[in-house]
Write a structure and sequence with these properties.
Chain lengths: ~1050, ~500
């Protein structure tokens, strides 16, 4: 079948050209002059290739002013083509010798220009796996961090917006897991982030900076990504495979995201204004029983489960249970409402641009404010971005940009991402009176009245020059300086801190000086062989330093500073451990060759040297090879009209990241105080130096296929990859006979393999009515390949917190599995509890036998005792499938865009539910109770329930029916989320011109509109990177937005 | 033409970038001292050697180490219930019954003494690793260190590691043994006799590289000298003589030879008893190795570490109302056994009239010297922590000679020590009497310096009620009743590790 199809293709491919050749007859030649302009900006276009359609041969090219002069047969058809522009066909009218051609940017994906290793190339001649998201896809919805809107738009880019805290980042992963490092314990365990490298207008930016300390962020914790105004983004490009990223070296190991901001592009100056007015509403919060319902439930629980008479009489001695007429205990306070709110916010963005090919400029002024749905939190952003391009002639070009931004964040009294105080308070008993002028708890004051002022000021300047002495040879140099200064000051009023006001201050500064010098050479030989050489070096100089100071007690709430120094109450201070002084030098080169744009081969190599690496093993090497076969250029396919293009890509590459630093290779030596009045210096015994530390090597194979069918009506992009991460850092704990604590070894390895598919269909493309649907998805599996030999293939990371939710690394299965007690249901009757035939005793825990209503915990070792030896491996905290769906409809002046994302096959531990349900462990405690009526709980013998009897508080501590370390809380976290629905209306041009506008557009949009999921918690996305639904997590709000775009008419 | 130009440009780039790049990437971290920037001068090495001493001293300082390991376990010491925080002082009697499991169990009144730390050997291995690393660095060569200095430093490093092994062997018996730098693998326990033999071989090769003494008085006894190494070698030989019975003769010969070498050197001397305060302050000609401490250097000792804490009261310790009596005392019976019936200046210089009090009035003035006589600070006298003292090694040599039957030489040596004590010469016969006398003489001379219990163990006198109030049966002795339990943490990440059976089986 396949063979026949192939022959058919071959036949049709072979026949058509000969037919067309026969039909034509020769005609006289004429000289044709003309100009080629950009249709939208009216700027002249240079280097536009002009070809005779009939012969397929090039006949000329436009010059810098867009002029051309060619000799062609009269009434020939001319083909105008250029990178990034739609090919234009012009048929010469009889006698016509002067033509004007207007070309417009095309939407043919094959001709898209993409940036590879800082060079603009056509997609046709690149071999890597690259996705492009246009700026307009991430606009129309106001967000504090543009990453939020990238979610579900690029297959293989897994973004989880797992916090609703304005200004904070979610988690970003390209092609699965690249790291095994888990820090923290309990619900606050987190995976060391492996964010991609961001390159904004050619300047690399470190996005992980703010999350250096995980949840224990010191300083404002504002990511540089949060400081980018989405309105200013022209395009976002995601580089996924090693061929595409290897030229970015070690820093590109986790993928590269290239953001290009807008350039000036209009002959007459343009003023564009965008404004959004949006409302954020807290999502559905957790239900609680209020007032008398709470009291009744507690009393009922005590009466029906009391073990002793004393428990019954204790009700009378417990004021909040017995004294229901006391005004202090006679309330029904909705504590969550005290902390959560609906907020109204706005953004404004003013963009000015203008200029032509010789000189153009842009200024973007932006303001964004969002108050968090938790009171006393929020994020404000101010931006002023400018860039300018000057191109006096063909040889010289200078581009400079200035990017200034100020981010201000309110974290409340929490860490931003987590709001422990709010979470604790939210579970306070509803019987308490609400906070008022006379009375409010210290915790409420702490959450609401703590003054938290965080600033991150970023200034980035960049100059990029390019000189082309001969056609095909170019030198360019880019220099940038990025400086961020951060401050945090927190003032805790006396009422929130045991009657003493407290002051905390943080100041930090970091900078990057960056320089890149580039050489490119481009040559086409005999019109068939094209060679492109790109060589550059990069140097970085980076520094960071931050300090804190804390005054435990200040005189009163009025004295907030200057605070001076108090020898007894001054705490902390000095330079923090994140001091940095580092240099990086890299050399990179690539050679790309293509034959008639049919076969493309690319080889690249990069050397990275970092100052933290030690001089003995200075450079890490990143090689890559890529091949591309543009099948559609083959003769036998060339004339398949339904095939717009088709290409196969095959790449291999390595990213090598030095894992060691001077300290891990040579050890740290500490000054340890005096002995015999002499200083003593000895090695730090926490970690044994390991001079044999190998760099982490990420090797990636990628096989890609892309095609456009029926004039790009259907575009399909498919990639399959294997990503192997070797020599991963894995700390080995050492025996006490070594004197050292641990050894940084790199004997761990993981592999990710998966598929990515993106299908875009332009279902309807009529004038006035278009409909495009795009679906993408990625399947990624990770497997743990290797652990240090002495682990015998398994390592259990014990969680020493109360949650005891251990993580297990077992070779051969998914990398991050949970290690929990398996819950097999609930004992329906006492007789269901197994009895140890040897002793006659029932299955027991902590000396207490199980009975009806208790959970069935699997007795893994079969000893009829539940203890630490009954844990089992299960679950996977990383999602298997991620992706997105989008549909765009335009009808006349109306537009409707819907974006949805999905995540499937992921284990979530519903810690929030376990926390809340287990409040029943002590009915005498002043905590709110959750309505359990809608939960499938065991109530009487004979019930077959999902949840055990939570009310038997007398045996709670022995049986622990609601213990967090059981699979009862492990749920599937699959979800489908409709993020954005955007309805827009473009006003009639003629109408708006009358009031002085060029165009005006109004739109209504939403963010995080609705989530479909089988998960029992509120939001399966609002969980940590390890899949724990933390009760202190910041709820992801819903947004409703009304926005306008206006372009002023500045022309005459 | 084009290609050539490109080649030239590339060549230029590479040649420019090459050497400059290394310089650019070489950043000396100013916030941390990493290993590649250490061991760059003689001063670095000295600071590192002092660090090894500091670490080893930490083990002595972290609890009442000397008394608990070397003095109380045979029951000669009783606690004074009337003393300040009396119940906490009762630990000496728990030790005296060899009931270490009770001593180490949680929630005892003496928990603040942190005796559990004795069961942790990690810090000894830190000393060993530190010394191994220093030796490997010295072998590679360190700028500014001459050949003589290098040899001396090597000797000091080797001494530090052997010292750590010796401490461990006396506490735990068999221990893992290694001498390579940056050792990271788990090891099983090595037979104690082998460990000691390895240490002896190791130390012997460095012995002659060290000076006999330091001209700088601040280094005397503080930095290891040839005398320190000889003292350690003698102690190690004598330890093995007790456990490696078949080769005992050889060990005695070695000890005797080393002892004679030490004495013949004339580098050390016994100070007159009137100058005892100088000896116990430290850095004296009598000191072979010590952990020197001084208030003048702001050295902070743990309050419970010095032996004087237990046996000194007002006016040598203040304030008066908490130090009316000593926390503990040596039984009158035992003191009488040591001193009654012969003239001995030590009985009056090192003790007062309450030497036979049999209660908290007892005081050991041996460690009351250099005390604070003004102010009310609750501080122990400002003394050094003496590890090896010339007098002790003379007696050890005498013991070896007596074991070899060279009684005359032995008696001569014993009398050197007795002369200094202004006591009568030994008048008894040779053979067992002489050996017993030497043992008693060591008990007298070294009381409170942490040798007594180890002498009982290595000479097996612990098996006899003549010598010990807490007699071990031969069976218990063989099962390791004389050792300390090894912390369970030793089992972590070490599949080859075993703990001390005697203690894991309930301690009897």
């Amino acid at each position: 079948m396949k063979l026949r199809l192939f022959f058919l293709l071959l036949l049709t491919g072979g026949l058509f050209p000969s037919w067309s050749l026969l039909a034509q007859a020769p005609s006289p030649t004429v000289t044709v002059r003309g100009t080629v302009m950009n249709k939208t900006s009216n700027a002249p276009l240079q280097s536009v290739t002009i070809a005779n359609e009939k012969t397929g041969k090039g006949v000329g090219m436009t010059d810098a002013e867009g002029h051309f002069e060619i000799r062609v047969p009269a009434n020939a058809s001319l083909i105008f083509s250029s990178v990034g522009l739609a090919t234009k066909k012009v048929k010469l009218e009889p006698g016509q010798t002067n033509i004007k051609v207007a070309m417009e940017a095309n939407n043919r994906s094959m001709d898209d220009a993409i940036i590879v290793a800082y060079q603009r190339r056509t997609k046709e001649t690149t071999t890597g796996a690259v996705n492009v998201v246009m700026g307009k896809e991430v606009q129309d919805v106001p967000v504090s961090n543009v990453e939020q809107l990238l979610q579900g738009k690029v297959p293989g880019l897994n973004i989880q917006n797992n916090t609703g805290a304005p200004g904070f980042r979610g988690s970003v992963q390209v092609r699965g897991l690249s790291n095994l490092s888990i820090s923290g314990s309990g619900s606050e365990s987190f995976l060391q982030p492996t964010s991609p490298l961001y390159i904004i207008d050619g300047v690399p930016i470190d996005a992980d900076k703010a999350s250096e300390y995980g949840f224990q962020t010191q300083g404002p914790g504002i990511s540089p990504v949060s400081l980018i105004p989405p309105e200013d983004i022209e395009s976002i490009q995601v580089l996924k495979d090693a061929q595409a990223t290897s030229m970015y070296g070690s820093r590109g190991a986790y993928g590269v995201i290239i953001i290009t901001t807008r350039r000036g592009n209009s002959k007459i100056p343009r003023v564009r204004y965008t404004s959004n007015y949006f409302m954020t509403t807290p999502p559905k919060l957790r239900e609680t029983l209020g007032g008398n319902a709470e009291r009744r439930l507690k009393i009922g629980q005590i009466i029906s489960n009391a073990r002793t008479y004393d428990d019954i009489t204790r009700i009378n001695r417990t004021a909040f249970l017995a004294d229901s007429l006391n005004a202090y205990w006679n309330n029904s306070t909705n504590w969550q409402a005290v902390f959560y709110r609906t907020t109204y916010n706005q953004t404004h963005n003013l963009a000015l641009d203008g200029g032509n090919a010789k000189f153009n400029y842009k200024t973007n002024l932006g303001y964004y404010t969002e108050k968090g749905v938790i009171k006393n939190t929020g994020f404000d952003r101010y931006n002023l971005n400018m860039n300018m391009e000057f191109k006096p002639n063909d040889k010289f070009r200078v581009f400079s940009s200035l990017f200034g931004s100020l981010g201000m964040q309110g974290k409340g009294n929490g860490l931003g991402i987590l709001q422990q105080g709010v979470a604790d308070n939210g579970t306070a008993s509803t019987l308490y009176p609400p906070p008022s002028y006379y009375q409010s708890s210290g915790a409420v004051v702490s959450a609401l009245k703590t003054k938290n002022d965080n600033n991150s000021r970023n200034l980035r300047a960049n100059v990029d020059m390019r000189y082309e002495p001969f056609p095909g040879v170019a030198f360019s140099s880019s220099l940038s300086y990025d400086n961020t200064s951060e401050t945090e000051s927190t003032f805790t009023p006396a009422a929130a801190n045991n009657q003493f006001a407290r002051v905390y201050d943080f100041t930090g500064k970091n900078f990057t000086l960056y320089n890149r010098n580039n050489f490119t050479y481009f040559k086409t030989i005999a019109k068939a062989h094209t060679i492109f050489i790109n060589a550059f070096n990069e140097i970085y100089k980076q520094g960071a330093q931050s300090r804190i100071t804390r005054q435990e007690k200040t005189p009163n709430d009025q004295v907030q500073g200057p605070i001076g120094f108090d020898s007894y109450y001054s705490r902390g201070g000095g330079v923090l451990a994140n001091f940095k002084n580092a240099t990086i030098a890299s050399f990179a080169g690539s050679i790309s060759y293509d034959y008639q744009k049919r076969f493309v081969a690319e080889f690249s190599y990069r050397l990275d040297g970092t100052s933290s690496n030690g001089l003995e093993n200075l450079y890490s090497r990143n090689p890559s090879i890529g091949l591309r076969w543009n099948i559609s250029k083959e003769k036998w396919l060339k004339d398949l009209i339904w095939l717009s293009y088709g290409a196969l890509r095959l790449t291999w590459g390595q990213n090598i990241v030095p894992t060691g630093n001077l300290q891990s290779i040579y050890g740290i030596y500490n000054l340890n105080g005096n002995f015999n009045n002499n200083p003593t210096i000895g090695i730090n015994y926490d970690q044994i130096p390991n001079p044999f530390l190998k760099p982490t090597t990420t090797t990636q194979y990628n096989l890609g296929f892309e095609t456009g069918l029926l004039n790009d009506k259907f575009v399909v992009n498919f990639d399959a990859y294997i990503k192997k991460v070797d020599n991963l850092l894995f700390d080995r704990n050492l025996a006490t006979n070594t004197g050292f604590g641990k050894l940084a070894s790199n004997d761990a390895g993981i592999a990710n393999y998966g598929y990515e598919l993106m299908v875009t269909a332009r279902l309807i493309a009529k004038k006035g009515f278009t409909w495009t649907v795009s679906v993408n998805g990625a399947v990624n599996r990770d497997v743990l390949l290797r652990l240090p030999a002495e682990n015998n293939g398994q390592y259990i990371r014990i969680d020493n917190s109360d949650y005891r939710q251990h993580t297990v690394f077992r070779v051969g299965r998914n990398t991050l599995s949970n290690y929990l007690i398996r819950n097999l249901g609930v004992y329906s009757t006492d007789n269901d509890v197994p009895v140890d035939p040897a002793t006659g005793k029932r299955y027991q825990s902590n000396g207490i036998p199980f009975k009806a209503g208790d959970p069935i915990f699997k007795d893994v070792n079969g000893d009829y005792v539940l203890d630490g030896r009954d844990y089992e491996v299960g679950g996977n905290s990383q999602p298997l499938v991620t992706g997105g769906i989008s549909t765009n409809v335009t009808y006349k002046n109306f537009g409707l865009n819907v974006y949805a994302t999905f995540t499937a096959k992921r284990t979530i531990l519903n810690n929030a539910l376990s926390d809340r349900m287990s409040i029943t462990r002590d009915p005498f405690d002043l905590r709110a109770v959750v309505p359990l009526s809608d939960l499938d709980i065991w109530r009487k013998p004979g019930d077959h329930a999902r949840y055990p009897n939570p009310y038997d508080y007398g045996r709670y501590n022995q049986i622990q029916p609601l213990r967090p370390d059981q699979t009862l809380w492990a749920e599937d976290g699959s979800y489908l989320k409709i993020n954005n629905v955007i309805v827009s209306y473009m006003f009639n041009k003629a109408l708006v011109r009358k009031i002085g506008f060029n165009s005006a557009r109004i739109y209504f949009s939403t963010e995080n509109l609705i989530t479909f999921s089988g998960y029992s918690g509120p939001n399966p996305e609002n969980v940590t990177t390890l899949g724990r639904d933390v009760s202190s997590g910041y709820a992801v709000p819903r947004k409703y937005n009304l926005g306008i775009n206006i372009e002023l008419n500045t022309g005459n | 033409m084009m290609k050539k130009t490109i080649h030239y440009i590339l060549l230029l780039l590479v040649s420019l970038a090459g050497p400059g790049c290394k310089k650019f990437l070489d950043i000396q971290p100013i916030d941390k001292l990493s290993g590649n920037n250490f061991y760059q001068s003689k001063e670095d090495v000295v600071a590192n050697i002092y660090d090894l001493s500091r670490k080893l001293f930490n083990k002595v300082n972290e609890t009442h180490f000397i008394g608990a390991t070397g003095e109380y376990r045979s029951g000669e010491v009783l606690s004074e219930s009337q003393s300040d925080n009396g119940p906490a002082r009762a630990y000496v009697e728990v030790l005296g019954r060899n009931d270490l499991l009770t001593l180490l169990s949680g929630n005892q009144p003496w928990s603040f003494y942190n005796f559990w730390r004795i069961t942790e050997w990690g810090e000894y291995y830190q000393v060993i690793q530190g010394a191994n690393i220093l030796l490997s660095k010295l072998e590679k060569g360190i700028p500014g260190v001459s050949e003589t200095e290098k040899k001396q430093f090597e000797g000091e490093a080797a001494f530090a590691r052997s010292m750590a092994y010796f401490f461990m062997v006396r506490l735990y018996g068999d221990v893992p043994y290694f001498t390579d730098a940056f050792h990271s693998t788990a090891l099983p326990r090595e037979k104690m006799v082998t460990v000691i033999n390895n240490c002896i071989t190791d130390l012997t090769q460095y012995k002659d590289n060290l000076p006999w003494s330091y001209s700088d008085p601040a280094l005397k006894g503080v930095r290891a000298s040839r005398g320190s190494i000889i003292a350690l070698l003698m102690n190690m030989n004598m330890w093995n003589a007790g456990f490696d019975k078949g080769k005992a003769e050889h060990y005695y010969e070695e000890t005797a030879a080393l002892g004679n070498e030490l004495i013949a050197s004339g580098a050390y001397r016994l100070l007159p008893l009137s100058e005892w305060s100088t000896v116990i302050k430290g850095r004296s000609d009598e000191s072979l190795f010590e952990f020197y401490r001084s208030v003048n250097y702001n050295d902070a000792n743990s309050a419970v570490a010095p032996i004087s804490d237990m046996f000194v009261h007002y006016p040598y310790k203040r304030p008066e109302y908490t130090h009316r009596v000593s926390f503990a005392y040596f039984r009158a019976e035992y003191m009488q056994k040591l001193y009654l019936g012969s003239a001995d200046r030590r009985a009056t210089v090192w003790f007062d009239e309450n030497i036979y009090a049999d209660n908290g009035k007892f005081m050991m003035l041996k460690f009351a010297q250099n005390s604070f006589i003004t102010g009310e600070e609750d501080k122990n006298p400002d003394n050094t922590f003496m590890i090896f003292r010339y007098a002790g090694e003379i007696l050890l040599c005498a013991e070896a000679l007596a074991e070899l039957g060279r009684d005359e030489e032995a008696i001569k040596l014993v009398n050197i020590v007795r002369d200094r004590a202004e006591a009568g010469h030994y008048a008894g016969g040779g053979g067992p009497d002489l050996k017993d006398f030497i043992f008693l003489e060591r008990s007298r001379e070294l009381m409170g310096e942490g040798h007594h219990y180890f002498d009982l163990v290595r000479t097996h006198r612990i098996l006899s009620s003549t010598w010990s109030y807490n007699v071990l049966t031969l069976d218990k002795f063989n099962r390791g009743a004389w050792t300390w339990p090894v912390s369970r943490s030793a089992l972590d990440n070490n599949p080859y590790m075993t703990l001390n059976d005697y203690w894991t089986n309930g301690g009897n």
